[in-house]
Amino acid sequence: MAFDYSLDFKNIDFRQHPELYRVGKGEQGVLLVEPYKSEILPYWRFKTPDIARESSVKIYEMFLDYLEKDDFVGADMARKFIQMGYTRSRRYANHKSGRKYKQNSQTSDSKKEILPYEVDPVKAESAAIFKAKWVEAKTNEKYQKLLAKHKQMYEVD
Q1: Segments making up each domain of the chain, as ranges
Q2: Fewer CB atoms < 10 Å away: N or C end of the chain?
Q3: DSSP 3-state assignment of 101?
C-alpha cells in the first residue's frame, strides 16, 4: 500500500499506533512520522565524511535498538533517514546548490531542465558512507522479517 499522506501526523503517535504506518516507497513520510522523526532528526548530518560517518553510525545504532525492541516503525524510520543521508549527500555531490533542476517559471514540471553535474568528491564520500549503512540496514535479517510481518498484518489490500 502507498504511504498515506491524509493522516493527522501532528496528533498520531506511531509508537502507540503502528497499524497506521505504511512503508511506502523510499523515504516517504520520513519527516512526518512521530515520535521517530524527533528522535532521529537531531543526529542526521552529512556535510563532511567525518560528520556523515558519525551520523550514519548513530542512526544505525538507533535502527538496531528499534529492532531489539521489535519496533518495526522505528527501525523503518531509521532506515529512511539513513537512505535520505545517502540521497541528499548524492544530490549535493552532483549539484553544489543542492538543486537538481534549473529554476525556470516558464516551463511545466514535466519539462524541467536538469542542471549540469558538478561532482563534489567530499559529498560523494559522505554519500558512500550513508549508502553502505543503508544497504546494511535494508538487508538486515530481523528488519526483513519485521517488514514482512508488518505488511502482512497491516498493509493487506
Answers
A1: 18-154
A2: C
A3: strand
